[in-house]
Amino acid sequence: MSQLLSVFGIDWKMLLVETVNFLILLGGLSYFLYKPVLKILSDRAAVIGKGVKDAEEAAIAAKEAEKKKLETISAAEREAEQIVSEAVVQGKNERAAIVKNAQDQSENLMSGARAEAEELRRRALSESDKEIARLAILATERLLKEN
């Protein structure tokens, strides 16, 4: 074997030294470069995994917030509809009360006007009766004076 190596111009001692140097270099690079790079990569993978997990949690929280927002809007719309319907009912009740009050006032005015008209008619009849009686007395006096 040593003849075969010498045919190719390879010194086995030098090959052995180069192999040992290569193994030392490999061990040093592994210790000082490969392991720290692996640690950095694993740390980055952990950070990315945490980011993905946080993003999923944020998406879930956003969906829940959207659902809660829709429920709140729905509740507010129902409450608004209820308030509007109550206001409509109250408005109708107030309108009915105002109309009834106006009708009552109208009836009171009409009955007062009727009573006043009746009183005026009665006075007019009374005065006309008095006037007729006075005129009859005057006519009778004239007739008696003439005769």
Structure, described:
With 147 residues, the chain is mostly helical. It has one domain. The chain is built from two helices and no strands. The termini are far apart. Helices cover 97% and strands 0% of the residues. It is rod-shaped and about 200 Å long. The mean pLDDT is 92.
Radius of gyration: 60 Å
Q: What does the overall shape look like?
A: rod-shaped
* Major beta sheet summary: none
Order of helices and strands: HH
Average residue pLDDT = 92
Number of strands: 0
Unreliable residue stretches: none
- Helicity range of the residues? over 70%
List the helices and strands and how they pair.
Blueprint: H1 2-8, H2 12-146
Quick description:
The protein is mainly α.
Write out key terms for the chains shown.
single chain; 147 residues
